[in-house]
Amino acid sequence: MSAPGPPRAVAAPATVVKVCGARTREDLRVLAGAGVDLAGVWCGVPGGHADLRPDVAAELLAATAPEPVLVTLRGEGLLDLVRRTGARRVQLHGHQPPNLVRGLVRAGVSVIKVLHLRGGRCLQEGLVPAYLRAGVSAFLLDAADGDRLGSTGTSADPALVAGVAARLGAPFLLAGGITPADRGRFSEVVAHPGFLGVDVDTAARDARGALSAARVAALVRGWAGARP
């Protein structure tokens, strides 16, 4: 019998990179060219810098690369908004109840529910079991800044994120002031078996607030590295 060969290397799972706030087809081309996996399309985000009308959002949500995600604060009228835009994947900011999540899942929509971190705690942690029963696909842990939810540029505390992640029992994405250099700072979070990847807005933009191909590429290099 021949001697066994060297152990085969097993590739670590690729880190998902999601960039939020795509406003045009050109934005989607920039993200796809940099290797971004998911593109956040805002609709129903009052006062948001990338909030779109439903008809404009529908055009972007029909794209295939990167995979688009409807990002919204909407509660009332959410099912109608999903029908109007044709969204297949939805990211819920705000305080939408689990029964609304259940309605989306029954309609065939994949749901990412954002959990907000503020004041050393997760504001919606008590609802996590109910969200899981309702069919949430994944959570997103994001730093809240006062009453502002999402795209705050405020960095999450790595120890707080790690503690919440340990209690989730579900896959999750990380957001909150994420930069290309942050992977080492969040090493404990990245090592968690439920960690899927990162969601970025501010660090993907130039001084004018436009998506920057160079900055997006740096994010992909910093977090995803060389993918299989």
Entry keywords:
228 residues, alpha/beta, 9 strands, 30% helix, 20% strand, disordered N terminus
What would you say this structure looks like, in words?
The chain is α/β, with parallel strands linked by helices and 228 residues long. Helix 1 packs parallel to helix 8 and helix 4 runs parallel beside helix 5. Helix 7 links the parallel strand 8 and strand 9. An eight-stranded parallel β-barrel has the order 1-2-3-4-5-7-8-9, surrounded by four helices. The protein is built from eight helices and nine strands.
Helix count from the secondary structure assignment: 8
Going across the major beta sheet, what is the strand order?
A: 1-2-3-4-5-7-8-9
Query: Strand portion, in percent?
Result: 15-25%
Poorly predicted tracts of residues: 1-12
N-C termini distance: 33 Å
The number of distinct β-strands equals 9
Overall outline: globular
Q: Fraction of residues in helices?
A: 25-40%
**Multimeric status of the protein:** single chain
- The radius of gyration is 18 Å
Let me know the average pLDDT: 89
Structural class: alpha/beta
Major sheet: 8 strands, parallel, barrel
- Listing every helix as H and every strand as E from the N terminus to the C terminus, the arrangement reads EHEHEHEHEEHEHEHEH
Care to give the gist of this entry?
The chain has 228 residues and is α/β, with parallel strands linked by helices. The chain has helices spanning 25-34, 54-61, 78-85, 98-106, 128-134, 158-168, 187-190, 213-223, and strands at 16-20, 38-42, 67-72, 89-92, 110-118, 121-122, 138-143, 172-174, 195-200.
